[in-house]
Amino acid sequence: MSDPNKYTVGWICAITTESVAAQLFLDEKHDGPEYVATGDNNDYTLGKVGKHNVVIAVLPDGEYGVSSATAVVKDLQHTFVNVRIILMVGIAGGAPSPKTDVRLGDIVVSALRNGKPSVLQYDFGKATQGQEFKQTGFLSPPPTVLRTAISGLRAQYEADCGHRLEEAIDSVLKKKTRLQNKYGRPHQSTDRLYKSDFTHPLASDDSCVVVCGDDPSIAMTRPERGEDENTVAIHYGLVASANKLMKDAVVRDKFAKENDVLCFEMEAAGLMNQCPCLVIRGICDYSDTHKNKEWQGYAAMAAAAYAKDLLYRIHPKKVEEEKKFSEALSDIAEQHRAISEEHLLVQKGIFRQRLSDKQEECLQLFRLTASDKNATYEWYKSRVEDRLEGTCQWFLTHPHFNKWLKQKSGPLLVSADPGCGKSVLAKYLIDHGLKSEFNKPLNNPKENLLPTICYFFFQDQDQNTVCQALCALLHQLLSQMPSLIEHAMREYKLNGRALINTPESLWKILTAAGDDPEAGSVILVLDALDECADGERRDLIKRLKDFLDRKRQGERKVKCLLTSRPYEIIFSEFQEMLDYFPYIRIPGEEESETISQEVNLVIKHRTSQLARMKRLSDEVNRHLNQKLLSIPHATYLWVYLVFDYLKEEDFKKTVKGVDSAMATLPRNVNQAYEKILRKSKDHPMVRKALTIIFAASRPLSLAEMNAAVNTDRKTLSIEDLDLEGEEDFKSRLRSWCGLFVSVHNGKIYFLHQTAREFLQGSTLPAIVPVEPECWQQSIIAQEAHALLMEICQIYLIITVWKFDSLFSDVEQANQCLSGLTFLRYSAQYWPLHLGESNIDNTAHLESILETTTLAHLSKQLNRSSETLGRCYRQSRNIDQLWMASSVAELIISITPKDSPDLIEHIRNFGIQLATRYERLGPSDDLRRSIKAGVIVFSAHESHPSYTAMMNNIVRWPEMRFSEWIDTVDFGQAIELTRVVSESIPDGHSSQAECLNSLSSLLRLQYLLTGTNMDLGEAIATAKVVIEITDENHPSYSEYSTNYVRVLGDHLSSLHRMRHPGYAVDIAGNSLPTAPHAHPDLVEYLSILDDTLDTLPKKPFATARPEGAVNIARDN
Fold this sequence. Notes:
Blueprint: E1 9-13, H1 16-24, E2 28-30, E3 44-49, E4 52-58, H2 66-79, E5 85-94, E6 107-110, E7 119-126, E8 134-139, H3 144-159, H4 165-175, H5 180-183, H6 208-211, E9 234-241, H7 249-259, E10 261-265, H8 268-272, E11 277-285, H9 296-313, H10 316-321, H11 325-347, H12 357-365, H13 377-383, H14 393-396, H15 399-406, E12 410-416, H16 422-438, E13 452-457, H17 466-480, H18 486-495, H19 503-515, E14 522-527, H20 534-548, H21 550-553, E15 558-564, H22 568-571, E16 583-586, H23 592-614, H24 618-629, H25 636-648, H26 655-663, H27 669-678, H28 683-695, H29 702-709, H30 726-737, E17 741-744, E18 747-750, H31 753-759, H32 781-803, H33 810-817, H34 823-837, H35 841-848, H36 854-875, H37 878-894, H38 902-920, H39 923-939, H40 946-964, H41 967-983, H42 991-1009, H43 1012-1028, H44 1036-1052, H45 1060-1070, H46 1081-1094, H47 1106-1114
Parallel strand pairs: 1-4, 1-5, 5-11, 6-9, 7-9, 9-10, 12-15, 12-16, 13-14, 14-15
Antiparallel strand pairs: 2-3, 3-4, 5-10, 6-11, 7-8, 17-18
InterPro entries: DUF7069, NACHT_NTPase, NLR-like, NPHP3-like_N, Nucleoside_phosphorylase_sf, P-loop_NTPase
Domain NACHT: 410-566
Protein name: NACHT domain-containing protein
């Protein structure tokens, strides 16, 4: 059998004829794959073309189109994880035109032309009143390595005065004489192109040669190709793809004329939506009613012959350098996200009007909530296994589900124990179940009004915050209903990019959008509510209850399906709603038997797969099936783990052999986990790897994990790290941990949330002592954080030592930093792990340092931190900034509180934090920077750096506001400037500048929000600045300008005030203190004068202040 990991090229065929042609052009044919992934239903042929290992897959018999191709590709990626490029090779209908002489037997290769993409999904577009239908389904181009090979092959053909494809086809068929009739080239007389308005007689199945003839009035006359031309021509350009067969010559000609389409087929769009792909098609008919099966075999051979020549042009190294299939999927999903959204709108009959740049910016912001840009909410759903055909059907017939379906609004709570398939059920409902049920007239009398479905899958320690959930829901809702974007724009203008971290504003948007009549029916699906972050779950439930409350909803048509483990802390919160809203418990008493039957379906399916893989006899297969079906209370997760165990178990292929294997079979999930981990031979490294995964603040990449697991107290330099290549390390991790961990998108995860819970131990003494080799409850959280904190600190220290000699060469330092894969994580998260470990860092570091003292290390680190800060200012390399600030914090953590150097270290750390805030904007960095400045000042009021440091801190929020127009930064600026001003004693040189900044910020906030309280504080603060500043001070003019401006703003507001006499009173009391020589004062006094003239003649409740009136009249 062949190892699937060795195959890098995928070759997809739609029909058997294409698959046969592909196999005929293999240089070698290999045995079938050693194994296939769970749920992979494809049939594969393996072989070699040139130096490439190729896997050929064909669509299921009788299935065609985009969705079938998508399914085949999806299954292939799970088994052949190292596939880098995909070829879609087969037949198509040609689109001849005056511009391109496409004939039967010719080849079309998808290629960019005149700036147009290579594949067009032509049943995918939008209609605008008064305009023609516009196609929007242009899909991504083939990978660069394939496009480069196409160019090289074209040049080769031209230099050789033509290709040799006809000879290659003849050579192959000489060895397979029985295939010559079907796959050989038909007689040229059967290649007939009819005029577009002439259709094949409906009642006849006979060929065109018999029925239609070659009358010049209906058949197009075309010149024969010359002797200096190949019989098979190769055309490069646009391939049109759709879920339907093109049989309309008029429509064909329209696409050929307007879009330069060369051929039509039914599968490419399904592949291009899934992976980087090149489409190669042999022409077998002309996309009209005159279908011609005679040419299908030869057309398939021509396409396969070209594909072989193309692979010979590509060096295997170039293929290996391409992204893996799984990595490319994330990029493709991101590229096609907008297209998929628009396609959905077309299907729902909604025209998505073009959003403004600001609206589009706001919409896209809701996607940017994951730490990894590839790990979108769609990706988390795609990680969930697809349900087995025939399962989940019980849910669709459940009376509580159907009751909820018919309700206008409200929640449906679904609870189940771990491993019972909640997420699989949620995915099925999102992708198929809800849509199919709403298509039934009984559930949806207005059949054209399908609901808008939005979802979010909570994932512990990864995708688990309320803000992430709300952003994902809003992105889906606003993408599908663009008219609702206006509800987000006000909050976006107020909060800017901080909106995605402002739950109050996100709830406002969701509520307003749900209340909008244009929203129609909306279904929100939230999976694994129990995995929401501990500190946020209670608030989420409260908000959901308010959002779904019948009394508050009015006409809102929003339903919510929630899945969770049956935790009392969650369901007690919903208890009052359960009286009038449905609830489903899995397995409940009524559903237990039905669900057991569905689990048994999975067991039977997996047993048959195992029997094929191990070549079990029918008798042994039946016996194994009976044994497994007899085990009570099986869950989906247990089935998954057990079959992985049996797949690895080398039992005899007899009835007794099955009985022996069953005797050692784990009876529950925890036993299965224990068996998986006890198989490992490298126990210490397994424990270290699992401890790191357990404590990590986010999923680590393979490269990060490789560095972390190889770092220990013996690591004295970067060179000491004994790192394998990524693929080798991935294999080693698999050998250590087996199925217990999984790798998705290059990141490492526990197989299931229950795996983490299996490992987690208690700090309390165990009632029953744990065996030394027992894995269950073997990891204590504090100890895990201590280990990862130590690894981070060691990695950070050896990095500093490595680059001490390189910091003067910024370019070389940047280059070396890029290779340190664990640096960013170490710098960012070691303080968090220190806090969770609850240990004394000074004592801990002293215990692990062998080659230096703590005092020497502290001085070395301080010098490096300052140097790194300078390097960052030159290079703007963010890794240098993280290192500088992280090293500065590490120094403080190991410096004794009575050390004379502590204040200097705190000052340096404060500067690094402020710089980090300036670059990245986290408000916590600014607060900590101010705190550092206050500590420095309280220790040394005359510190030379204090004034400059405090003034810079004050100005950064204001600068960020002017750059981002972000009122969250603006509000922080005011709040933090108050903190700074309060910490500065009266008479200090920084006081006036700080207060002037505060007044300016308050004035700007007044102009933005119109709040008179802000303006009043701005006037009072500016007045204090004038009073404490000498007129000869270089900044006096700036301060007086600010004061007069705030007074002018106040005067300008007189017309808007309800009691203008009172307003004049205030202005009159303020104006006498303004600098009389200021050039703008006359202008503002003129405003006051005009205001006084417009006041009513009758007496005011408040008399006009004589001082103000006199000043106004005198000027």
